[in-house]
Amino acid sequence: MEELEPSELGTQEYWNTRYSKEIEDFSNHGDPGEIWFGEDIVDRVIRWMNKSDLIKKDSKLVDVGCGNGMLLVELANDGYTDLTGIDYSDKAVELSKKIAEKQNLNIKFFNYNVLESIPDSYQIFHDKGTYDAISLSENSKENRLKYIENISGSLSDGGILIITSCNWTQSELNEQFHEKFNLLSIIPTPQFKFGGKVGNVVTSCVYQKK
């Protein structure tokens, strides 16, 4: 499988700069910033979670690469109680804390790099775009394998990984994660039709730790 070409989206400097600007916008205008992949994808993930017998409102969940934390805000408002966000950008963590505090929500946020360590165990990992960014970094294959190893190591037995990607197809994700995870479900995402073929703008897969 060919690796993706490195991009600025795979650098910590890019995200620190981006979230510094979003902190300024939030402080001045109350704008929390962009919801990565859009609100529709967040709604689809939460609907799937609410229907799943494996996920409870008090399940221990971590959002990897939480950004502005808006997925966790939506989950908290939907009644989920044990929520954590981690991001390697300290500016993202600063922004997400400000947004959650403004709404008086009890969400934990930490400045951690998933490629280095995850100092806790969780029942559910959620990732919307972080694996994509890692795939666009220098030494992407090494970093992808480290990501998969660390996520698997920090998931409880039978734990769930919900991952949304715009860079990898379902079959590519299955190939990359199959050693540590079984495919559990596919979350339907918006489709497009071109030249008689139907495809997806993004892919959302749910995996269970082997």
UniProtKB/TrEMBL annotation:
Name of the protein this chain belongs to: Protein-lysine N-methyltransferase PSYICH_LOCUS666
Organism: Psylliodes chrysocephalus
Residue ranges of domain Methyltransferase in the record: 55-184
Primary role: S-adenosyl-L-methionine-dependent protein-lysine N-methyltransferase that methylates elongation factor 1-alpha.
Enzyme class: transferase
PANTHER family reported for this sequence: EEF1A LYSINE METHYLTRANSFERASE 2, PROTEIN-LYSINE N-METHYLTRANSFERASE METTL10
A GO-annotated cellular component: cytoplasm
Lineage: Eukaryota, Metazoa, Ecdysozoa, Arthropoda, Hexapoda
EC number: 2.1.1.-
